């Protein structure tokens, strides 16, 4: 064994210590430089930002409250179902209130909004979200049913709820989307990313998705912020509903918030690996084949396959991004 | 900062409370509706369904018992290897027995099978599974070796066992497949999904896979329920071995259980992103290139690349799904 | 319910026991066979291999020390930032020292290197790594900024740090790459796989990546060991920077360590699903379109789309692998 | 440093191993001997005995359900108090049911009672216990009030509930006593010992204690199985209400269950270190001084001090034990 | 086995349910009655009281910060000692601030003090406490030394710090006493009770104790609120320094805060089981024998034994309590 | 509410910071002073001392291995009893080896013993201890039987093992005593203190105790280092077997290791609160009454009560300590 000593020059000085003082000092200088460059006010002492771990736990608690006998604790009995839901919701909503408050305060610091106003808004957002939970559960029931009916291999709605990553992703999305719509986009995004990490399905919380939505397998699916999806739509793994982007010779300062992702109408099926880019419309009842690359609208009832799409849509200067 | 108050109308009434009673009641009504629609007998008090968390832990314990010095606890010594295996197996098998019993009882409720019969079957399934563990370990040794030999970057079989997501996915698959074959398909599916979440590799527990199987990188791989894979097969990331599905103008009620996924014979290599759909056969020793889209059988020794596949296989009315 | 009893023959003998003695004995025999086949010296009592769990925790601690107010504990205050960093680093570096020592000893056993020499080298590697942390943080600041500027949807650098899987993957890569370069490739690989599992982004720790690197969405990205990436490069999901591999009629014994992955020069953008294979060079400022399949070099300023790439690069005998 | 090697003779043989096989075998032989001597049927596979850890947690959950805003979780809000209680009770009662069942089955094995009968009894015991919880809380309120009024240093009833070990001991006692009375004496005893370990106060679950009971400081207090304590009684640390026992020249086979501990009537105060032995009666409103040794009854309104007690009660042949 | 069914009458109605609704309702009514009786304002939603668990952890963190290499984490190195202390203190002090705030707000509610004033006071108390930590450590060093010198069996100061419950009790007392003196008596009391539970030593946080204090064995020691103990005092197990209390024919409303516990001057030794009651003074350098009962002052240099004490101090009408 | 601001003077300067730098610096100075005073070599980086938490866990694991079906995990089955024991012992013995090594190295540092010699001794001690475990279990069986026979309230040997603090204390003592005898007195002491904290029973690991030993209730029992206890001895709560100590006008340098605690011969019973001091002998078969104070030997068959003891043994100049 030849010991590679190249590159280990500085460590020789250390003699059994890590030179922590030196490292800590250098890191402090770099942080100071960074904060200076970001015009960050450093006087604020405590961490002022929502927490990934907290929001992951809150999202799990909400899932458990929505589907107590399937996603709740394994020792739950129906006699205490409502007790469990009430207690779990209270804890989850208070936790969520804290996280939403952190997000709003973070924004408000730049805007000089008074803290009491911010806190009242946070409370209103979470209270409104809480009242929407029953609708949300009713909507999710249509998704579970769609998954059950969409996959002939599914043996029961319970299996679907427990085993299908697409269902987990959709539950998280519907929670996140509601929070996004109510004015907590960062909290929503963190919840969406928790689902992304667990399922490989990346749905931006801004995407609007109708009832009876089902994603099978799911790994690699990406759905963009302004996508609009109708009812009873079904996607397979690695489908992208993304944005087109133009070459760098343009101004480069894209306008935010403009609709830039596809509109997918009711009863559309999109097979694995298909990529649909830009504000195009996939007409009601269409079927998009696997690996299809599509950057134009198609009318209702279209059946698009790889071959047909390539002849018509790929132009040399067009580039795709989600 | 302009406070968005639109959509926060209902929350105004709440005045410092979450209106939990109202939410809990509405959720109860929706659950009752759902359970009514599913003809679910609600008299059963306790949760009657296998647990994801429990099965994930059981699968990990089985991995540790199969490869004690690599996947077992870091403080394990060879002197107590057998003690560790025996104790760990006992706990894992008893846990598994409980989960299999939950699955069988769930099915039996519809079929009015007496509980003693169901419990005896659960015990027989787990006992048989336990006796199969040595074969399973022997089989997995061929997979580990295949991974080691298949990747020139691998420095040791130990590295392969610890670092390769494909190996983790295959260990879980071989466990899940055995349980599937013995009659516990739901438990098997939950174990498969645990591996899917951790590795991005989605292998249905029904898939039959021969010795010496290796998946490199792995994210996005999907292997369907009736796929049959020979010995010494190698796959790369984002490979799909899926089903073809026909347009909706057909009857719509697909027959379950029919062979609908590819047969991949011995010594085949399938490169990243290739998609193979339907009950086609990839002949022994063939090589399928990256991104290839293939819906027909190819004879032994074929070398298929993207160009060659496209000219021959993509027909306008054919649609792909796994 | 018809009880499937086929295949449950052996279990009948068990009568309420799992026959643990038999299973443990058979597993021992199989392990002995395997160890024999691997010429493994079995006299060594304890586990002699780095631990995935330990390294995942160490990597998280390093992330927290590098970005204390974002990735550190949620109750951290700026007054104790340096205290937190110093203490966390000390614990993480001592843990890392232990893991690097395990790796080096494992290698040294074959090479008969004296243990004191090995331990001194382990210490030197970790000390050098520690001293590099400030540079590493400065480099990561450019990545965070690139992510913020590269995605018009990003609202703040803080959001980028907390929500973007690509950023998590890059932090882990820069840690892993440094350890790889200093001589701890196995420890580096385990850290890289932790990020792969969490994000679906698979970057080999050997890959060289310049400042200002950004991966958006990320699921399915694969970057190979000898890839070289310039400054300000941007990738989208499912991009592969892989190796080409030649058919099996060759000798089959590939030379390790040879450059076999792409060189991507400064300011290149590669859109989702693009696959670039072999030691080709993507010239400075080029844009590679979505789903493009590319196995040749392109000059600076190229704009490659799916159509243009397919006409020129796909040859029947060429096969792709990462 | 002189290494003491005497007594280390056997270990010399071990050479880096613990000789686990030998130790395990010897331990098995000794267990077999013990089980033989205890006429223990060894065919029963699983542990058939209540669990200390489980019962400690159950007792804590019951405390939390009885005093939710003080002994419940720190993030509890009044809006979800009832939800918390309902859910916590359900989990605790189901856990308790399991433990009571273990106790009854253990007894029943000797008595050959059918298991269904035993399980029905277990359920009846726990259901009855559950219905008694409101009375129990009302009784405990008198204890809390007594503690608050009995100690001029107490600032609030909340402080009393949170800080006084005597109050913790009494809550556990009232729970344990109820279970003892309903027919689960072993489960009751385990709960009592959990309080003993935490507070140093040892109250046998059989002891009958009236409302408004208060123990100050408490370490070393022992109250025997057949003690009867009236209302508004106050004890200090190291008080013993024990049994007298007679010398060994008697038959030695004491009759179980006979009243053998003191009766303490209403409004009695017993100061620190006092020892009262045998089935004597301390008349209503009496005061027993510190360190007093008392083995005779005293009429209502007595004031007993160390001096007075010693002149009258200590006889040479009398021996004390609790 | 005869099933005791007496007393199980109510449970018969339950039929597989716990009647949770009924129990929850009855408990709510009782709580309402209690809160009414306590004139408790029920409108306050959240728990407004310090937490035992939180304070136990805070006290442990302070112990670790005071003696990092002995009571800190076992993987601590001297290089990061100061980092550890700084970070641990910051977390502990912020936690303590929260608990002190809860105490002050609880008091303030009755007194209608504005919350900002209360919060400023909480911060001042904790800041002052923090600045006192170095003195506190210096004082504790004298206690450790006293323990080491006072017990010939002690082999090192490190053993004393790790093994002696008396030392653990004194560390907690000095922390609690400081908080008591600064105006957080409830927080102080909860910390004292944590030590009481772990060691059986019950020191009221109000007690004033000089340097070089040592308690050997310790179980059953009780030291009252207004006790004053000089320097270099040594106590053994079951020593009480309590209050005398007068019979009930008095008014019954004792004046709070009056000195009512002993003054023990410098260099006194009090052996096991001794009881000293009332505002008496034990003169400098005295020795009080085991089991001595003492309710009068003794001059400096006294040697009191059981016999001598009984002749002089026990009067028929005197009763002892701490 | 009058805000007490006295004593809060220093905190005024702090202005929202804890002045951590100042506190950390002052604490460092005090530690340096202390280490200087203790002639402590500060160059040693890591903590070099056994850990209370680790030893408490090790002792619990040993208890579980000795009584697997009662003190082991609640899901243990007899089929895997030996596997559990073997694995648990291996982990516990390796953990113990580490702790014993820490103790010996700590001692060796002063004595300049070479580390290899020290480590060999540590291994020999633990190996010898391991081989003694079967004898230890056999001995403990006599204790369990004694407890069962000694308390007419005990319903089964299982109840005794699970509920009696005296039994827990004796198991820990027999473990600790063996380690003490083999040369690990500090490790032994830490284990003894773990039992002391849990049970209130303080047995020095040096005490020699014969078979069939039983302590009932137990709180406050103290047994000194050189005590010698015969077979079938029974103690009740608050019994002290201590040392006499002489007044301070002597030289003050007591000789260590001299026998200074009582010898209690076979079949002795000592009732609650009795105190026996000095190297006296309690003759075989004697009975010592409650609260007896005894500082002289008594012949076999004595019956000592409080009255008889006081007339004969208390001399004015005699002082008691354990």
TrEMBL record, chains A, B, C, D, E, F:
UniProt xrefs under Pfam families: Hexapep
Gene3D superfamilies according to UniProt: Hexapeptide repeat proteins, serine acetyltransferase, domain 1
UniProt xrefs under PANTHER family: SERINE ACETYLTRANSFERASE
EC number: 2.3.1.30
A biological process from GO: amino acid biosynthetic process
Keyword set, alphabetical order: Acyltransferase, Amino-acid biosynthesis, Transferase
Keyword Acyltransferase: yes
Residue stretches spanning the membrane: none
Record's keyword annotation contains Transmembrane helix: no
SUPFAM superfamilies: Trimeric LpxA-like enzymes (SSF51161)
Reaction catalysis annotation: L-serine + acetyl-CoA = O-acetyl-L-serine + CoA
Molecular functions (GO terms): serine O-acetyltransferase activity
Protein name listed in UniProt: serine O-acetyltransferase
UniProt family annotation: Belongs to the transferase hexapeptide repeat family.
């Amino acid at each position: 064994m030849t010991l590679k000593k190249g590159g280990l020059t500085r460590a020789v000085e250390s003699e059994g210590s890590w030179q922590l003082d030196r490292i800590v000092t250098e890191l402090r200088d770099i942080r100071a430089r960074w904060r200076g460059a970001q015009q960050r006010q450093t006087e604020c002492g405590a961490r002022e930002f929502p927490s990934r771990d907290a929001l992951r736990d809150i999202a799990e608690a909400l899932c458990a409250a929505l589907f107590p006998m399937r996603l709740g604790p394994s020792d739950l009995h129906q006699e205490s179902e409502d007790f469990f839901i009430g207690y779990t919701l209270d804890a989850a909503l208070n936790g969520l209130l804290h996280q939403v408050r952190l997000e709003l305060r973070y924004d408000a610091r730049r805007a000089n909004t008074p803290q009491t106003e911010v806190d009242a808004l946070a409370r209103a957002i979470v209270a409104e979200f809480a009242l929407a939970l029953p609708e949300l559960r009713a909507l999710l029931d249509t998704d579970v049913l769609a998954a059950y009916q969409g996959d002939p291999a599914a043996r029961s709605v319970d299996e679907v709820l427990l085993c299908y990553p697409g269902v987990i992703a959709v539950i998280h999305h519907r929670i996140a989307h509601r929070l996004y719509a109510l004015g907590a986009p960062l909290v929503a995004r963190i919840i969406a990313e928790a689902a992304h990490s667990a399922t490989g399905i990346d749905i931006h919380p801004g995407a609007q998705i109708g009832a009876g939505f089902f994603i099978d397998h799911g790994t690699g699916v990406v759905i963009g912020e302004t996508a609009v999806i109708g009812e009873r739509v079904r996607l397979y793994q690695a489908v992208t509903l993304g944005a087109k982007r133009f070459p760098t010779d343009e101004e480069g300062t894209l306008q935010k918030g403009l609709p830039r992702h596809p509109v997918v109408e009711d009863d559309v099926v999109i097979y694995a690996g298909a990529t649909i880019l830009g504000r195009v419309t996939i007409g009601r009842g269409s079927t998009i084949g696997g690996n299809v690359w599509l950057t134009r609208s198609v009318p209702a009832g279209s059946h698009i396959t790889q071959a047909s799409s390539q002849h018509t849509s790929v132009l040399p200067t067009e580039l795709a991004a989600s």
